[in-house]
Amino acid sequence: MSPVIQGESPRGGESLTRSAFLLAFDLRKQRLANRGELGYLLRAAALAELLLAGNLADESGKARAVTAPADAPRGSLRALVWEQVSGSPPRSWRRWIRKDQARAVRVVRDELAADRLVRVERHRVLVFPVERIVPRKAYLSRRLVERIGQVVRGGRPVGRVEPDLRVLAGLAAAARLRTVVSGRDARQYRERIERLAAPVEPIATALRKAVDADRHAAADGGG
Questions:
Q1: Which pLDDT belongs to residue 4?
Q2: Which of 3, 60, 175, 214 could lock 41 by a disulfide, CB 3.0 to 4.6 Å apart?
Q3: What gap in Å lies between CA 167 and CA 204, rounded to an integer?
Q4: 60: alpha, beta or left, given left = phi > 0 and alpha = psi -120 to 50?
Q5: Does the CA dihedral 114-118-123-128 come out positive or negative?
Q6: What is the DSSP string of 118-165?
Q7: pLDDT tens for residues 117-154?
Q8: Strand partners, 4
């Protein structure tokens, strides 16, 4: 896949995971949107890269390891996910999306911080540690949000959208990422979103179900 971020080539083939992280910045509120679910999106992006590269295959709704990726940098999220899936019998995509999701955020955060694309600020409120992640190049997130928003809302036939943008848009919409789609957009463009996500359909479906399940559980717990 070609890098999603134009003019800023993500290293190590991590274009989807890195771009998904940058896409989640809500620049108006100066914070990450969907923070509690971001790990799901990042792991889904890593799984999508592996599926599209032929490293993984879908086996009746389960992820099956096929061949090791030749270009996954050591320590990257893609390498971590591959190691987990390849060391296990076929399991559901949803299981792999939900596994170690907090760690997924840390892995991609640290990679972006090392490349000086984000800054991590840590301080304490009373006795509790608080972390704030700030984009160093906010224009990258702004540009990415605009491009993915255009992909979701139409203008170009799905078949003519660049593959990397198409998949990222489909996954972001499946994750209900607020910087990309509102609830109204999700309903209005439902069929287009499904077509965008078609190349990674089992992953997008599992991602949507994981996010929806967590939200329903939170709503039930809140009374």
A1: 59
A2: 175
A3: 9
A4: left
A5: negative
A6: EEEEEEEETTEEEEEEEES-HHHHHHHHHHHHHHHH-SS-GGGS-HHH
A7: 999 988 777 777 778 899 999 999 999 999 999 999 98
A8: none
The pLDDT tens digits for 49-89 are 999 999 999 999 999 999 999 988 889 999 999 999 999 99
Q: Is the predicted pLDDT of residue 9 greater than 50, yes or no?
A: no
Distances (CA, A) of 198 to 102, 174, 203: 27, 12, 10
- Residue from 186, 188, 139, 147 nearest 168 by CA: 147
What is the amino acid identity at position 46? A
- The pLDDT of 155-164, averaged and rounded, is 92
Half-sphere exposure of 206 (CA within 13 A, CB side): 25
CA pair distance 43, 207, nearest whole angstrom: 9
Over its C-alpha atoms, the chain yields an Rg (Å, rounded) of 17
Let me know: does 6 contact 67? Beta carbons within 8 Å: no
Q: What is the greatest pairwise CA distance in the chain? A: 53
Distance CA 124, CA 127 (A): 6
pLDDT at 154: 85
Residues 6+ apart with CB under 8 A from 44: 97, 171, 174, 175, 200, 203, 204, 206, 207
